[in-house]
Amino acid sequence: MKKLTLLISNKKVLTGFxxxxxxxxxxxxxLDFPQKALWVRIIGYAGLYILLGxxxxxxxxxxxxxxxxxxxxxxxxxxxxxxxxxxxxxxxxSFWLAMPFAGLVAALAGVLICFPVLRxxxxxxxxxxxxxxxxxxxxxxxxxxxxxxxxxxxxxxxPVLFGIQFTEGxxxxxxxxxxxxLFVFLMNRLVKSHIGxxxxxxxxxxxxxQMSGINTTSYKLLAFALGAFMGGLGGAIFASWQxxxxxxxxxxxxxxxxxxxxxxxxxxxxYGVIIGAIGLIALPDILRGLSDYRMIIFGILLIVMMIxxxxxxxxxxxxxxxxxxxxxVKTPLQKKKKGDKK
Amino acid sequence: xxxxxxxxxxxxQLLNGITVGSFYALVALGYTMVYGVLSMINxxxxxxxxxxxxxxxxxxxxxxxxxxxxSNPTLAIILTFLTGSLGAxxxxxxxxxxxxxxxxxxxxxxxxxxxxxxxxxxxELVRLIPTIATAIxxxxxxxxxxxxxxxxxxxxxxxxxxxxxxxxxxxxxLSNDGFVIGGLFVSxxxxxxxxxxxxxMVVLYTLVRITKLGKAMRAVAEDKDTASLMGINVNQVIxxxxxxxxALAGLAGVMVGMFxxxxxPTMGFVPGIKAxxxxxxxxxxxxxxxxxxxxxxxxxxxxxxxxxxAVYKDVVAFVILILVLIFKPTGILGSATSQKKM
Lengths: 342, 342
Known about the structure:
The structure holds two protein chains of two kinds. Chain A is mainly α. Helix content of chain A is 71%, strand content 4%. Chain A is built from 16 helices and six strands. Helices cover 73% and strands 5% of the residues of chain B. In chain B, helix 1 (3-38) packs parallel to helix 7, helix 7 (188-210) packs across helix 8 and helix 11 packs parallel to helix 13 (313-327). Chain B is globular, with a radius of gyration of 21 Å.
């Protein structure tokens, strides 16, 4: 285990692995193998959860605000897209306009729900967001005139790009793949920018962050808006991919799954989200052979994982400056370098 | 409808609210005690409530088999309450031992995920018990089944009472009799349930106020390290807290089964969240607060039915929660100093 940790902490090994995995993921929908459509769907679905996971990572991993109602933003994005691009209201806005708009509406909802609870910390925020997630789902279920209730909405428009209509699973697979690449890049920049530093300072100690001149209110709102925006995007993609949405697609299990995946992957690490999503979302599908027993195994795995490795598969590596300044936390990489000098 | 009729409807809803409120209050006590002692949300608490209902169901069916339900229903009811709450207590303590204790020093998120895992595990276990039992007793050694067909039938009949995906129906052991005051029908069973809950809560409150265990619990809630320096066995206190909280949840589970008759493996989820809402409403960590919160939530829900369609009662519960958190984040009885504990 220690060796493995050392291996995955090594940047070169990690980059090499990521490139290999990337090449595999790009090529694999082009190959021919049994049950291809199913596998493209499973991995594409895991990819969708990577997008959601990165959104929630901003809330929980970077800004340290525990959010148990992430499905609300996912639902708001999905419903916004559906209202704009389906036969439901007979509006047919282009996917490329409606998707960002769905994200923006979700971001607005994020700001609205975050604003009243800014004064509160930790668990209280968790409960408010939990309640918010349930309110959104219940409204989707019961405002039948607007959302068609439990009947759901069907015939949602598919995206069209250069005259190609996205009908196959692999169209969405590549769309999600490209978005993930884009967001991994953006997130990496964000974490290193002053915004990311402010968030992490807030996560470590809010009072100290505030005294150091960080306007915690606006940074919290920003974190919530950005995370919700990504949740909204995910919702729009989900709606157009599925072609139909039902209130039950946005139940609490979605929020819990997203939270579990970022924690299993390693809180605060973008690549951890990827590992977590593949592990968590694809795992129940892989375990499908065990049919009835898969959820109980999933439950046991969550407990065992937390006891054996509570920091997740790929824990956050503290930035170099932090480790040098503190001198207490040493990454395996640094230890190795010191050994080289001797 | 005339004025008197409306009044009767209102009083009927009031009675319903007090009954539902008793259930919420009993379950909320477990949440609030655990939160008080460990500062963690025991996500599996709603499932403990469900386990209690199933153990009660199993017991009452066995008592019917031996004829006790017919000859001495009072004793049968008391025995069912006892086994239901004791069984739930044992399950609760086991969950704490396996899933929470190893994580006491880990981050709060880790124990939250572990609790979610425990919740999924319990729910799935109850759902799968007959499936697992069938698989085990059908094992064949050398082509021959190990058990005779009659034995297998008998085992399956008994195990079938322990769980399964289908809704189970309690035998109607509580009588439907009652009396009428001014056009309002009040059943004896309702009075029984409200009274038992009230008495138990008063006993619990006294226990925490005056006994040594109660003092130790409050000390651990205040500061675990200092309490252990004062010679308090912290682990033992935590185990007992889980025992009491789970026993109350199990009792509520049996009551719900006897009163509403239908039980299913997913029955713990929504009451669990609502009970937690009650605990927050009353001021989390505060025992009388949890009781008041339970009754307030139960009443608010049923009163909302008079003005809104019944489907919105869950929305009302969460909106109340959010409003309380915005305007009085410490809850109805919470102390002003609990800011730090957030």
